[in-house]
């Protein structure tokens, strides 16, 4: 039986298989999303099943020549990350996005790194911090979504408009189209933007979210703080791009979050 080299991994999803086993969806840097059978994992609850938990860094060995591999030896690759409160649902949401969107078997080094960064940021949040405001969860989630969409080639350039072959202007307004990316639109003085429109200042600030490391609010082109508005624009943008990729089947993690917290 062919054996792949040991690989860092996180468990994205698990489901029962036959009487005693599990089918796991893993995220790895070299093979991206990959499925495997953990034989006997449901029977060995004291050791193996306890180790196969989400958000725990693992070192796994996969065996087999077919698409559905067999899980071999598993080692811990670091301290498990314990998410609390709303951060748990944020982690489950990220896992579901990866299962739904990532092609199987393709190397995903940048996605793996973005996921590690997201988990570290979510694990650092206390329940008290999460109750202060949405930004502590919104910022790492929006950054992860944007980095994932960029890795998939589904995110348009956030600082460039193909029409006229020119950079996005902070004082302009733009509409996202599936064919051409961001197209400039004329907005009369005092007129409100439509749901699919974005200010240039917000788009440039959203781009900075994919590059920033520190959890800081960004500045608009005018120099005024627009952190909440930028996060709202980033959320609208990500949902607009994700909607056709995810199709009509709702996200279970989003529905669960809504049931528990009564919010979007």
Automatic annotation (TrEMBL):
Transmembrane segments: none annotated. InterPro entries: ARFGAP/RecO, DNA_rep/recomb_RecO_N, NA-bd_OB-fold, RecO, RecO_C. GO terms for cellular component: bacterial nucleoid. The keyword DNA damage applies. Residues 7-75 form the DNA replication/recombination mediator RecO N-terminal domain. GO terms for biological process: DNA recombination; double-strand break repair. Involved in DNA repair and RecF pathway recombination. Belongs to the RecO family. HAMAP family: RecO (MF_00201). This is DNA repair protein RecO. It comes from Microbulbifer pacificus. The gene is recO.
């Amino acid at each position: 039986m062919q054996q792949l080299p040991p690989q860092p991994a996180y468990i994205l999803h698990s489901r029962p298989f036959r009487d005693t086993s599990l089918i796991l969806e893993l995220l790895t840097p070299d093979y991206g999303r990959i499925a495997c059978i953990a034989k006997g994992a449901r029977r060995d609850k004291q050791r193996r099943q306890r180790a196969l938990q989400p958000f725990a860094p693992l070192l796994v060995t996969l065996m087999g020549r077919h698409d559905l591999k067999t899980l071999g030896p598993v080692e811990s690759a670091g301290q498990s990350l314990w998410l609390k409160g709303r951060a748990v649902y944020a982690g489950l949401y990220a896992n579901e996005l990866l299962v739904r969107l990532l092609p199987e078997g393709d190397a995903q080094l940048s996605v793996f790194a973005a996921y590690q960064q997201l988990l570290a940021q979510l694990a650092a949040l206390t329940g008290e911090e999460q109750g202060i405001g949405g930004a502590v969860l919104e910022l790492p989630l929006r950054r992860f979504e944007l980095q994932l969409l960029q890795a998939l080639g589904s995110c348009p350039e956030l600082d460039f408009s193909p029409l006229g072959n020119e950079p996005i202007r902070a004082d302009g307004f733009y509409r996202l189209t599936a064919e051409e990316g961001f197209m400039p639109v004329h907005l009369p003085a005092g007129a409100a933007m439509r749901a699919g429109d974005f200010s240039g200042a917000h788009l440039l600030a959203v781009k900075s979210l994919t590059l920033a490391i520190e959890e800081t609010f960004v500045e608009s082109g005018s120099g005024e703080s627009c952190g909440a508005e930028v996060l709202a624009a980033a959320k609208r943008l990500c949902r607009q791009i994700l909607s056709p990729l995810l199709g009509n089947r709702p996200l279970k993690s989003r529905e669960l979050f809504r049931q528990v917290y009564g919010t979007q």
